[in-house]
């Protein structure tokens, strides 16, 4: 099965079900303005209950690198996902445990990606929506994700994926991994067990 990250986890039961169904990674949002923001103490609590071989990713937006390091240590994060305007040099401080997110609207948004080669272990391609930094539930033109493969950095496809469109996304783009959040929610940060089950059922064999 394609590697799957379930992002914006805020509840123990959602983490447990996602992992039981086969999620390879779960994401916690440490960006205060997000409706999916997770306090450090709660993140630690969820993290400590996870079995081995599941990666825990912390999502940050233009956060101070020292604060990121402290949170990463406290929560035992496996990867840092940088979702703001972080430069290649900021990313490099966390290499190889770092993923850089790019919000994509058109071909111009791909131009900066090569500068990150060798400084991040993957890029996450998400949808550009004015005034929103992530978790938009909107899809971008997947032909741009296919074009981004030429940079030779593993691609995590995100943005508006849900149990209905995920098979077509994986077949069209063949990304390294996929990332979902709002497409499997009933409210921000609250995953829907039925949608989670539908997602992994549909991904079987991919
Ligand atoms: O989800 C958020 O609220 C969020 C806020 C600020 C920065 C990043 C955020 N999410 C990061 C993710 O990795 C999401 O899973 C990604 O944007 C895809 O979201 P969706 O379109 O809802 O599947």
Automatic annotation (TrEMBL):
Matching Gene3D superfamilies: Aldolase class I
Keywords associated with the record: Amino-acid biosynthesis, Aromatic amino acid biosynthesis, Isomerase, Tryptophan biosynthesis
Keyword Ribonucleoprotein carried by entry: no
Pfam families: PRAI (PF00697)
CDD domains in alphabetical order: PRAI (cd00405)
N-(5'phosphoribosyl) anthranilate isomerase (PRAI) domain: residues covered: 4-202
Biological process annotations from GO: L-tryptophan biosynthetic process
Enzyme Commission number(s): 5.3.1.24
SUPFAM superfamilies recorded: Ribulose-phoshate binding barrel
Functional pathway: Amino-acid biosynthesis; L-tryptophan biosynthesis; L-tryptophan from chorismate: step 3/5
Catalytic activity: N-(5-phospho-beta-D-ribosyl)anthranilate = 1-(2-carboxyphenylamino)-1-deoxy-D-ribulose 5-phosphate
GO molecular function annotations of the record: phosphoribosylanthranilate isomerase activity
Keyword Ubl conjugation: no
Top class in the EC scheme: isomerase
PANTHER family, sorted: N-(5'-PHOSPHORIBOSYL)ANTHRANILATE ISOMERASE
Family, per entry: Belongs to the TrpF family.
Name recorded for this polypeptide: N-(5'-phosphoribosyl)anthranilate isomerase
Organism: Thermodesulfatator autotrophicus
